Each structure stands twice: as structure tokens, then as C-alpha cells.
Amino acid sequence: MSEKSTSEGETSGGSSSGTTENKKRGKARVGRTSLILWHTHQNDASAVQRLLEEDTKLVNARDYDSRTPLHVAALQGWIDVARCLIDHGADVNAQDRWKNTPLADAEGAKKYLMIEFLKSYGGLSYGQNGSHNEPKPVLPPLSNKGDWEIDPAELDFSTSSIIGKGSFGEILRANWRGTPVAVKRILPSLSEDRLVAQDFRHEVTLLLKLRHPNIVQFLGAVTEKKPSMLVTEFLRGGDLHQYLKEKGAVTPATAISFALDIARGMAYLHKEPNVIIHRDLKPRNILLVNSSADHLKVGDFGLSKLINVKHANDIYKLTGETGSYRYMAPEVFKHRKYDKKVDVFSFAMIIYEILEGEPPLAQLEPYEAAKYVADGHRPMFRAKGCIPELKELIDQCWSADVNKRPSFLDILKRLERTKESISSDHHWHLFST
């Protein structure tokens, strides 16, 4: 809310009631700005349409980095949302705090259809020509397909069920040679999309390199026939998000056991010289081997990044808003350069959720939670009797200073020491705030 509108409200109202009303409207505007940015990011054109019908000024709403909804749509490549915004008068050449236009963001993210779309409406490429650019490394040739190429005729979907969905496909439970498996299948409508195919190949290339007991096992893929499919082991325990939703907070012994499994998988991914940054570490991507939850594995590498580091002190920085808002490191949300320590931040948020039994900042929408964290705030601990060593570790892992966040190897050492110092009958006691 501008100072001008506030002073006008005080003059015309002649009392503090006018000021109060203006403040209320200002807060409402902030909330609705978050809403339209969130629905834009989620590619929900109908929700964006409804908001704009209620308040047309939202079409050029800005977040604290001066990004408009059209910037968000351009970066993600959401054509339908962008068309809705432009139809309602969006400024196609609005500039954010980095002086980037939506077209510059689309070019940086290599959203080719979006680039042509914005150009057709007079979009110009101002600014840094894509400060969010994350060029994918040149991928090496895939290894001998005879080792892992699966004939789709071997996949039995007769009793299949959908266990997950994403922007580009769905994950189904199926059977392969008599064994239950999880199959990520690209949607038929996107089977010819060049960028989708590139992302699919990127994920296959990563999974081919991974062999670890705390990483979901890659079994093979269908690449020679359509639709493309990626096949991994099926874990009967479901994901950590659903487990915590049903069970709530766990004992300290279980919390440390969960943390150790996740940290082991992540320490393996972060091992140099071939560092793999997950970039979307969250409870939904942590899978339980069975219903007893005695073993966890890290999965879903659709957003992961493989970086080759020749020397331990090499700098490998990325930019771009990638991942899930609620678990997102502040430097990612702010579109600043980042490295593998973003996974350490997400790890801290996950361990907090394991201890508390609910997502961090559950009272806020995901986008608002990310902004709250980026502004320097952190979730509050409610658990009584919280082990000081564990709380101290979490505080360091979600530090705003990236250099203060420990590596996963250091995290493992500290967790092992903490595990030895507690007894299995120690329980959390919650109190209401």
C-alpha cells in the first residue's frame, strides 16, 4: 500500500477508522498477491482467472523482488496462464528487481514456446537475458541400452494403480517379470515434446549412476517406444509425508534413525567429484521401504543436477527457483546463486517436520512460508524435551549463512554421536502455544 493512498484515506475519513480500514485493505492485497503468484506457479489458469475477475489490479501485482505473475508464468513456461494474464492487461515488458522482463526469464529458462508467445505480444528481452538461466550440462551418451532398456510388453498394468502425479506424467504401481515396481510414465500428449524428452533423459542418466541402500533403486527404462517410462523399485511403505500425516511426531530414537537414513543417501549424492544436488528434497520424495518404517530411501530425481567438481574448493553455483516452496532454501527463493547446501537446508526443514509431526510453518501457504523464511524467520520448536544437540544441528543446517551449514558427512557424524547419547524410551511431549 502506498503512502499516498494512506494519507488520502486519513484526509477523507477524518479519523483513525479510515486508516485502520486502509491497513486492512493493504493486508488483503498482500494476501491476494501471494495467491495469484502461487496459482500462477501451479499452472492453475482457472484460479488465476477467478482472482483477476475479482480484482483486475492483481494482473500486475509484484512480490518483494518485483516479479509479476507474468514473470512467474514465463519462467515456468505456462502458456495458458500467460495468455490469461495478457488478456487481462498484464504488462508484457514489466521488469523485476534485476531489470529482467518476462521474455528475458523465458529465454534464460529455455522455454521456447513461451519465448515465441511473448514475442507475438510485443515482448522484449531486457535485463540480464535470463538471470534464472540454468544451462543443462551436455549429457554423456547413455550406456548400453541392453543393460537396462525394458520392453514395455514386460510391464503388466492390468492391476495397476496411480501412486503419484506430476507436470509431465504419472507414477503407477505395476508388475515387471512378477515383481512390483513403480513406473513413471510420460503423458501421451507430451511424448513428442523435445524438452520433456530432454528432462526424461537427464533423469535416466542420473539414475544410471546411483547405487546406494538409501537411494531408490533404478531398474530400467523404456526409451525406444512411446510413451517413455522409467522403472524403479516399489517401496510398500509409501512416502514420509503421508506417514507423518497419519502418525504425527515420532520418538527421538525414530527421528534420529530417519535423519540418519536421509543423511546417508544425501552424503552419497553430494560426494565429489560428481556432486548430485537433489534440489527438491521434501517428505514426499522420501520413501519408506515398508509399513514398519525401519528404512528410508531418497527418491525422485526429476529436478536433480549433476555437477562435476575437479577440486574440493571448486565453485559450482546455480540460479533459479527450483523445488518446493515450503522446503526451499532462501537463496533459491531469492534467485541468488546456490550450491549443494540448499539440500542441507531442506534436510533441516524435514527433520523439523519429523520432530513436530506437522510441516514447517503449516499455518502459511507454501509461497508465503518460503517468503517468510527468506525474510530471515524460521519455524518455532514446540516439542518439550527436545535434545539440545539435535536442535543445534537443525539451527545450523537452516542457517541463512550457507557457509555455516554443515556437510552431510559432518551431519552423519553428529547424528551418530547423538544416537549413542539417548535412550530408546525417550519420548517427545508436546504442549500447545
TrEMBL record:
Binding positions (ATP): K184
Record's GO cellular component terms: cytoplasm
Domain Protein kinase: 157-429
Reactions the enzyme catalyzes: L-threonyl-[protein] + ATP = O-phospho-L-threonyl-[protein] + ADP + H(+); L-seryl-[protein] + ATP = O-phospho-L-seryl-[protein] + ADP + H(+)
Glycoprotein in keyword set: no
Positions annotated as ANK repeat: 65-97
Record's keyword annotation contains Lipoprotein: no
Protein family membership: Belongs to the protein kinase superfamily. TKL Ser/Thr protein kinase family.
Name the record gives this protein: non-specific serine/threonine protein kinase
